[in-house]
Amino acid sequence: MNETSHIPNPWIYRAAVLTTALAILPILLGAMTTTANAGMAFPNWPNSDEYTMFSYPWLGLIQDMGTNKENYDKFLEHGHRLAGVVIGIAAIVLAGLCWTKRTTSTLTLLGTGVLLAVIGQGMIGGFRVLERMPELAMLHGLFASIVFALMATTATVASPRWSSQEAMTSANSVKGAKIASTFLLIYLLVQYALGGIIRHPMTGMRAPIHEHLGLGILSIVVVGIVAFFEFRSNSSWLKRGMGMVLGLIVLQVLIGLITYAMKFGVPSMGIVAVAESAGQVISRTAHMITGVLVIGATAVLTIRTYRVDYVKNYSELAVLSQSID
Question: Which of 76, 116, 171, 195 is paired with 162 by a 20 to 30 Å CA distance?
Fold first, then answer.
């Protein structure tokens, strides 16, 4: 099967987009759980106290969780677990469609990878509770961004635009863009990991606050260099992807500065840090979610860049082969 021109089944594309969108739910609740220090609201897993996943009276916690910190923590943590079940079901449906519908081997591999990644993410979260290890909590948060990026990549590969070659063959060289976008993705993963260490402090380890802040500001320069190469490609597909990354990174830097002010305070501006204040919870949660979106958008941009380069090379080889014949 020629994977450069095969059009994927539209149901796979819809399922991939839905799975990626639904992934925001457990990420949101997970970010709120971490911000509220509610990750150990239950001492056990997969059960919640003496209840199973679906028998726990979750909605009953709403009536007094505003005044009862324990109920608030349990509402967030159990909600996070239920959201994990939702994304697990979506991943099963996506993998099932990739296995049963006529599609490319690449999509079958990606669909399977999404399912295995979701299962792995759930296991990491479970062992984090059972073993009471902050290192696993940090890994759980970092892996969430990787799983989301994999889902977004799968949706991109399953899209009709992935199989449309005409605009790709007319694009300028993207060899520089390939290197630049790959570097940016690795750079952002390192930056995200540093943020994870700050969110999940470990005994004996200094929180890399200044390194995280400095690299965050420097990311604007790095993404500017990447944008130069991507816009040189003259590909509208890559330009749109680059525009999304640019917008998200600028937003992330702005939210990061607000988060720093809310968490550590800025006395010269009259801003005092108040632990678990509404401003701190909102800014920290938004910062984490936007970080996941940035990595997902950068992964999509990178895979698009590689796709354009692959199609161009394939087309050039085909033309060369015809001329020889």
Answer: 116
